[in-house]
Amino acid sequence: QDNSFEQFIINYCNEKLQQIFIELTLKEEQEEYIREGIEWTHIEYFNNAIICDLIENNQTGILAMLDEECLRPGTVTDDTFLEKLNQVCATHQHFESRMSKCSRFLNDTSLPHSCFRIQHYAGKVMYQVEGFVDKNNDLLYRDLSQAMWKANHSLIKALFPEGNPAKINLKRPPTAGSQFKASVATLMKNLQTKNPNYIRCIKPNDKKAAHIFNEALVCHQIRYLGLLENVRVRRAGYAFRQPYEPCLERYKMLCKQTWPHWRGPARAGVEVLFNELRIPEEEFSFGRSKIFIRNPRTLFKLEDLRKQRLEDLATLIGKIYRGWKCRTHFLLMKKCQVVIASWYRRYS
């Protein structure tokens, strides 16, 4: 019920993961249709970049202002931090506070004076400002290292070399918020170079019981996970896409003109293949470098035809092999018969 600094940075990480989910699914999906020259009507969706910027902006972000409060001289408290937020973020559409200059929340009794509220992608979350400054300073690690280095046990002293007074860096250690922000940035950079697959888990009820389906709870999760926008883009678009070369290589045995080898361009081969199979024109589109298939049933049909064709080819190979084996045995027996007959006639 009481969210503090820990929950704040967890929710910040969730926002960044949601942002990359949007980039890799909704935005990239629609941009690919445009790149490939596929006729497409843009579908609007909410991009949570504005929320990420509210938290991580280097000048006006919440983490930047928290670090500034932790580093500045003078009396610094959680209240001064909240006051600074109220000055800088008052007009931001995703920031709410009763103490800010914005009069929208002056009479909001659900929002205490010592709290601020952020309208995240998944919904509004209220944070207790108490403890933000101390938790962000994270001075425990330095004090702990110095204490461990003073131990008489050589192993413990070796595990905490940064506690050695001779090696203490006078520069102020990085705050917990800045360390977490750097870790999230590294994670995002790593994910951008990969092709991640998302598994969205839906909790059917709060009782952890079987055979209970809370419709309101499920609908709420579907909305804040961004599944509605994703489904709209998927249904309006194409379920499957593949470059022409691997597509032709996989399904070329379904057409006599492309089997066993197609000598022309891969796209022309795919066009011949799809015309031969009489797939409805509304079920596929030709992009600049890929074939786009709209309905999964069309793809399942292709896979079923390929499976049947492979079985037929396996039967054909087996038949030819057995015929060759029997003919080889027959020719050998015939040769033996000729030799035996010639020797028999010689001595008869």
Describe the structure.
Belongs to the TRAFAC class myosin-kinesin ATPase superfamily. Myosin family. Keywords: Actin-binding, ATP-binding, Calmodulin-binding, Motor protein, Myosin, Nucleotide-binding, Repeat. InterPro entries: Kinesin_motor_dom_sf, Myosin_head_motor_dom-like, P-loop_NTPase. There is one protein chain. The protein has 348 residues and is mainly alpha-helical. It folds into two domains: 153 residues, Methane Monooxygenase Hydroxylase, Chain G, domain 1; 104 residues, Alpha-Beta Plaits. The protein is 55% helix and 7% strand. The chain is built from 13 helices and six strands. Strands 1-2-3 form a three-stranded antiparallel beta sheet, covered by helices on one side. The chain has a three-stranded antiparallel beta sheet with strand order 4-6-5. A hairpin with a 2-residue loop joins strand 2 and strand 3. Helix 1 packs across helix 2, helix 1 packs parallel to helix 8 and helix 11 crosses helix 12. The longest helix is centred in the last third of the chain and has 52 residues. The protein is elongated. The N and C termini lie far apart (112 Å). The mean pLDDT is 85.
